[in-house]
């Protein structure tokens, strides 16, 4: 390698280190500036600001970036003046200081190829910013002291002298400076960056190692059995020796028996010693594997605060733009969360916080008129509860106007006025999570596009969790997210279905029971179990999964699974037990396997499928709703033997889905329902339908892509399709028809016969 290339590598490395330094110190600056804004008199909060600016200045000087040095130096001057009481940092001045922090971050993100040139291009912007920053320092002329602008508190001169001596001396001096804030906290460990894929592979190998070590257990048992046989053999030889002692005619035989007896005892002693050694090795190896496993798993966990660093600044800036006063608090920043979950949380939580500022907290005058403090409160909490991660976003604003949402539902054609009037509070709140649903009167940068809450719901469902909204009108709104702590390890219930092991995430098993057939009831050809005062559908797990075996015997092990709205009982062959299992993703080439989320290895090395409970709930709902039980007479053919037309409905709105189902069933059609395009696609691959009715905006697979997928499939390409959407623009209609739909209707068509006429036009009447 040439000297030049070595220098380039060194420069790239220093640039990355500089970026990391600026990012870390910018987070400190932002956090403490926002904290100082709420309590300007607390000078203790100025110390970390001075040190952060000083650290960036030293790093920038090493890189030779004078513009960054000058900016950081100016910030340091302002913080020093504030600490000396020369100035008080107001909210307006905080805006300018935060702009300075943003500018330092902007400098650090200049391209690697020529960072110096990139910084030079920022010179005009810097001059304006530095002038405004200087205004902070000189504004309170009456309070100015005779000290020089760059004077520092007593702890700073050693660092300043070192700066003048050069970068290496500056770093050395900085290292020796006492850190008052650090003395109060835990020492920070050195960190390295490792990809999630790499950690997953390590975790998988540790799991395999644990399985391999368990092979020693049966081996030790076999050795112990051999030892017992040796003990019996030794006793029999001993008896033979005693018999020969009274017979002097066989001296050679007696000698041989004595020798054999000694050898047997020696073998037995050796076996005992070896078994003890192997047993000790197995125990130590298992303990080591267990520690390695826990450490590897812990390395996947990061503090919740890692994804929340930008939220205080976002909330503060948004509140100021809207003319609102908001105090924002984060509780549980040290709560450990799987890095894969943490990476996906930032955008959904940002949506919830933006909604809380925009829709939740009222303007100061409005709050005062309602007898509330002029300053609103928004709280973000994270904690572990019952083996789950619970995240709460709460505000003390005016709450959710249910009547406003009800009217929006009617206007959008999502439900008739009669149906909307009968909706419960929770059913109304569920509409907030529909794609494109918004109560804003106008579209702005902040709100009105109907994007946000559906992202939150999709994330929760994707991670195997749920989201719930609590309306405390007129005193606020609370959004609760229940998520797994980690995606790599779950506590699970092992069950046997059709003589095969399956894994049910324990967090999704609401109840376990042993049910006698006599305790169930049969209504309209379906089995029901009484649970918490309600009849819940009961179905064989084997049948729900499409396996061969069904219900056996008269006493059934039942797993009750649930989502927010429904409970179902799954009859399994037997309960195997509870265990912690490592979650392994299915091979991507398999695509989405219906009702299956992942795979794991059991303690004996046997692979077992981990059930996708949300997918399974939809399958069970579809089977029970369509009378699809094989063990119970199928409802579908009328007395004349004519087969009814079968329609598949795909819509993620439970209200619209039920409305379509009832309309079609009332006209004699047999109906199956699915909650999104992916579930509909899975259903079409395993069942035959005469017509597909699909929404457009759905999670996992939207309606347009579903239509395209159908039209590209040789078996399904001629299948009639109706798209029903609330989008009534001409370009939306053309987009649906160009994808291959036969009809594109709006949801207002439910209020007349347009929908049923379109169905009859495509597939005829229900009895064909």
Range of strand content: 15-25%
| Number of DSSP E strands | 23
Average pLDDT, rounded to a whole number, is 77
**How many helices in DSSP terms?**
26
Q: How does the major sheet shape up?
A: 6 strands, mixed
Assign the CATH superfamily of the largest domain. Answer: HPT domain
Using only CA atoms, what is the Rg? Answer: 35 Å
Helix/sheet category: alpha/beta
Return the CATH architecture of the largest domain: Up-down Bundle
Which fold name is given in CATH as the topology of the largest domain?
Four Helix Bundle (Hemerythrin (Met), subunit A)
The geometry reads as: flat
- Percent of residues in helices comes to 40-55%
Q: Can you list the strand order of the major beta sheet? A: 10-14-15-13-12-11
Domain count: the total is: 5
What's the end-to-end separation, in Å? 79 Å
Characteristic key phrases:
48% helix; 26 helices; Four Helix Bundle (Hemerythrin (Met), subunit A); 768 residues; 6-stranded mixed sheet; 23 strands; alpha/beta; Heat Shock Protein 90; 5-stranded mixed sheet; disordered N terminus
Structure description:
With 768 residues, this protein is an alpha/beta fold. The protein has five domains: 3-181, Four Helix Bundle (Hemerythrin (Met), subunit A) (Up-down Bundle), CATH 1.20.120.160; 199-299; 325-483, Heat Shock Protein 90 (2-Layer Sandwich); 489-622, CheA-289, Domain 4 (OB fold (Dihydrolipoamide Acetyltransferase, E2P), Beta Barrel), CATH 2.40.50.180; 637-763, Response regulator (Rossmann fold), CATH 3.40.50.2300. It is built from 26 helices and 23 strands. The strands form five sheets. It has a six-stranded mixed β-sheet with strand order 10-14-15-13-12-11. A hairpin with a 5-residue loop joins strand 17 and strand 18 (607-611). Helix 2 (46-63) runs antiparallel to helix 3 (66-83), helix 9 (196-213) packs antiparallel against helix 11 and helix 14 packs antiparallel against helix 19 (453-462). The protein is flat and about 125 Å long. The protein starts with a helix and ends in a 5-residue tail after the last helix.
């Amino acid at each position: 390698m040439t000297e030049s290339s070595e220098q380039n590598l060194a420069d790239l490395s220093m640039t990355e280190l500089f970026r990391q330094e600026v990012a870390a110190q910018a987070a400190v600056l932002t956090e403490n500036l926002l904290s100082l804004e709420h309590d300007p008199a607390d000078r203790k909060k100025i110390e970390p600001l001075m040190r952060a600016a000083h650290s960036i200045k030293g790093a920038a000087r090493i890189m030779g970036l004078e513009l960054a040095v000058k900016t950081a130096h100016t910030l340091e001057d302002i913080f020093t003046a504030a600490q000396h009481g020369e100035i008080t940092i107001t909210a307006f001045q905080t805006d300018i200081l935060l702009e300075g922090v943003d500018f330092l971050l902007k400098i650090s993100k200049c391209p690697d190829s020529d960072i110096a040139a990139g910084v030079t291009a920022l010179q005009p912007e810097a001059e304006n910013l530095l002038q405004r920053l200087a205004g902070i320092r000189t504004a309170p002329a009456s309070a100015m002291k005779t000290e020089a602008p760059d004077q520092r508190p007593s702890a700073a001169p050693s660092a300043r002298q070192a700066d003048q001596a050069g970068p290496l001396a500056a770093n050395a001096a900085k290292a020796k400076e006492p850190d008052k804030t650090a003395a109060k906290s835990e020492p920070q460990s050195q960190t390295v960056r490792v990809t999630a894929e790499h950690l997953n592979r390590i975790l998988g190998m540790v799991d395999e190692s644990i399985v391999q070590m368990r092979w020693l257990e049966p081996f030790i048992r076999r050795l112990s059995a051999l030892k017992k046989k040796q003990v019996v053999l030794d006793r029999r030889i001993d008896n033979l020796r005693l018999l020969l002692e009274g017979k002097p005619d066989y001296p050679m035989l007696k000698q041989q028996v004595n020798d054999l007896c000694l050898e047997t005892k020696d073998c037995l002693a050796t076996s005992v010693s070896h078994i003890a050694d192997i047993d000790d090795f197995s125990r130590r190896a298992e303990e080591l594997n267990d520690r390695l496993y826990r450490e590897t798993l812990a390395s996947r966990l990061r503090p919740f605060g890692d994804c929340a660093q930008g939220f205080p600044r976002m909330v503060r800036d948004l509140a100021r733009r809207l003319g609102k006063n908001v105090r924002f608090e984060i509780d549980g920043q040290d709560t450990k969360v799987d890095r894969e979950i943490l990476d996906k949380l930032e955008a959904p939580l940002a949506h919830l916080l933006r909604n809380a500022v925009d829709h939740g907290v009222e303007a100061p005058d409005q709050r005062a008129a309602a007898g509330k403090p002029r300053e609103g409160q928004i709280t973000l909490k994270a904690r572990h509860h019952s083996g789950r991660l619970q995240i709460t976003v709460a505000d003390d604003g005016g709450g959710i106007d249910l009547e406003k949402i009800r009217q929006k539902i009617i206007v959008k054609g999502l439900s008739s006025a009669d149906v909307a009037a009968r909706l419960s509070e929770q059913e109304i709140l569920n509409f907030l999570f529909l794609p494109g649903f918004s109560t804003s009167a106008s579209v702005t940068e902040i709100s009105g596009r109907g994007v946000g809450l559906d992202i939150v719901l999709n994330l929760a469902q994707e991670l195997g969790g749920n989201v719930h909204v609590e309306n405390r009108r007129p005193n606020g709104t609370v959004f609760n997210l229940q998520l797994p702590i980690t995606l790599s390890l779950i506590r699970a219930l092992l069950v046997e279905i059709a003589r095969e092991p399956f894994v049910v995430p324990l967090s999704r098993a609401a109840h376990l029971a042993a049910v006698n057939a006599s305790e169930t009831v049969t209504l309209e050809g379906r089995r029901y179990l009484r649970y918490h005062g309600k009849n819940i559908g009961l179905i064989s797990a084997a049948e729900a999964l499409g396996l061969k075996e069904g219900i056996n015997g008269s006493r059934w092990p039942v797993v009750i699974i649930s989502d927010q709205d429904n409970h179902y009982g799954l009859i399994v062959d037997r309960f195997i037990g509870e265990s912690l299992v490592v979650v392994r993703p299915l091979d991507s080439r398999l695509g989405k396997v219906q009702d299956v989320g992942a795979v794991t290895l059991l303690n004996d090395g046997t692979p077992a499928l981990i059930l996708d409970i949300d997918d399974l709930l939809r399958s069970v709902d579809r089977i029970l709703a369509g009378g699809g039980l094989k063990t119970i007479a199928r409802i579908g053919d009328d007395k004349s033997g004519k087969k009814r037309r079968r329609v598949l409905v795909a819509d993620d709105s439970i209200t619209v889905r039920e409305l379509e189902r009832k309309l079609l069933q009332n006209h004699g059609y047999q109906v199956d329902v699915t909650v999104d395009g992916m579930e509909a696609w899975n259903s079409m691959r395993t069942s035959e339908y005469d017509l597909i009715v699909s929404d457009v905006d759905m999670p996992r697979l939207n309606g347009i892509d579903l239509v395209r997928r159908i039209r590209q499939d040789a078996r399904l390409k001629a299948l009639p399709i109706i798209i029903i959407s609330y989008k009534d623009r001409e370009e939306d209609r053309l987009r649906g028809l160009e994808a291959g739909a036969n009809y594109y209707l709006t949801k207002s068509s439910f209020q007349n016969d347009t929908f049923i006429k379109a169905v009859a036009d495509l597939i005829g009447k229900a009895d064909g």
